[in-house]
Every structure is written in C-alpha cells, then in structure tokens.
Amino acid sequence: MAHEDHAQAQQPAPDAPGTHRDGDGVARRRSLPERHVEETVEVAVPVSTAYNQWTQFKTFPRFSTVVRGVEQVRPTVIEWSIGYGPLRRRFAVEIVEQDPDAYLAWRGVEQHPSHQGEVEFRPDGSGGTAITVRILLTPRGATSILTRSSGAARLTARLVRGELMNFKQFIEGMGQEGGAWRGTIRNGRVQHDHPEPPRSRVAQWPVG
After folding, report:
1. pLDDT tens digits, 99-146
2. How far apart are the first and last CA of the chain?
3. What sign for the dihedral angle of Cα 51, 53, 58, 63?
C-alpha cells in the first residue's frame, strides 16, 4: 500500500525515550525494566518514511547481518530466522502494540518467552527521525549461560546498534519507503476503524 509523506513545516520537540503518545496525542511514560538494552540512531528521513519501511519486516534480510528470513504467520505474529556466527535460531513474536509513526512493541510467543522489546520513532527537530530500540532478554536453557557473562549486555547492544546503522544506510540510500501498513494494534489485536457488519446466514437471492 503506497503512503504519501505528510509535509512537516514545523517539527515538534522530540519526546524523551520511553514516552509514548497515545491516539489522543497525550504523552505517557511507559515503565521499562531496569535491565534492558537500549540503542538510538538518527536517520535523515521523515518519521513516516522510517516507520513505514521498518514495519516492512520481510525486507530486513536485505540490510541485516543477523536476520536470515522473515515470515508473516498472522497479522500480528511474525516468525524470524536469525544467525550470528555459528548460532542459528528460529522463533516467533507477537506484536502487542503498534501506533503508526510512533511505537511498536513485541513479545516472544514461546511458553517461556526469551525476550520482549519495543521501537519508538520520534521527530529529531531537523526533519529526520530518532529511532530507539529497547530489548529485554530473558534467555532459557543453554543460552542463559551467555546472559550471566559480563559481556552479554555489551554484545547485545553492539548487535542492536549495528542493525540500526544498517537500517540507517538502507533507508537513507533508498530515500523513500518500499511499502506501508498503517494499521493500529492494541493488546495483540488489529483495530478496525470501520468493522465489517456481521454476515447474514440467510441466502442472498439476486433481484431485478
């Protein structure tokens, strides 16, 4: 679905990371876990362009050094295949919250989720976009050994930072998004502005 960028004559002051503006425009601070990885990058494209391209998840393998494949299982469930060095993993996540041009949050759908995270998009005051990614890792099984090492957080932060820089080069090189989905998600459900009326079970006979 094509999306036209809205001209922004005056950019509002950027919100602080962790502050999310709801549909009514009111900024609300989300409570974040104390132990999480957080990285921010500024990209030289408008917020709508950055957001639209980021949410084209199937394009991640085109710029990512970690993501090998992406499959949309359901409107709010996405399966990711990643690889880093000798490590390979396939997992699914559910998008639990999504606000166009502002915010996206996800969580793992395993019985014992291994991670959760969020991405925020904010105008940077110069026509560009500040993208902040926060990830909370709670690995299970053998991977929990890595979490106990002193360099685990630094490694995760370095990977997230690298992926953000890859996205920056990708979207700035393109100059515009390759697609867009402008839907809103609340508590893991897509919100419909104009829901379809229930279908009648009575046969619809032709008339005229």
Report:
1. 999 999 999 987 666 678 999 999 998 999 999 999 987 655 444 444
2. 36
3. negative
Answering whether pTM is above 0.90, one says no
Q: How many CB atoms lie within 10 A of CB 31?
A: 5
Could you please report the per-residue DSSP string of 108-159?
E-SSS--EEEEEEEEE-SSS-EEEEEEEEE---GGGHHHHTSTTHHHHHHHH
In angstroms, how far apart are the furthest CA atoms of the chain?
77
Token reading at 110: 């395993």
Residues 161/169, Cβ–Cβ less than 8 Å: no
CA pair distance 49, 69, nearest whole angstrom:
23
DSSP state of 155: H
Report whether 60 contacts 54 (CB < 8 A).
Answer: no
One-letter amino acid identity for 43? V
Q: Do residues 43 and 168 make contact, with C-beta atoms less than 8 angstroms apart?
A: yes
From the list 95, 96, 99, the residue with the least C-alpha distance to 26 is 99
Q: Give the span between the Cα atoms of 127 and 46, in whole angstroms.
A: 6
Which residues, 6+ apart, have CB-to-CB distance to 170 below 8 Å? 53, 62, 63
pLDDT tens profile 2-48: 333 343 333 343 444 455 555 555 444 454 444 578 999 999 999 99
Closest by CA position to 83, among listed 55, 59, 64: 64
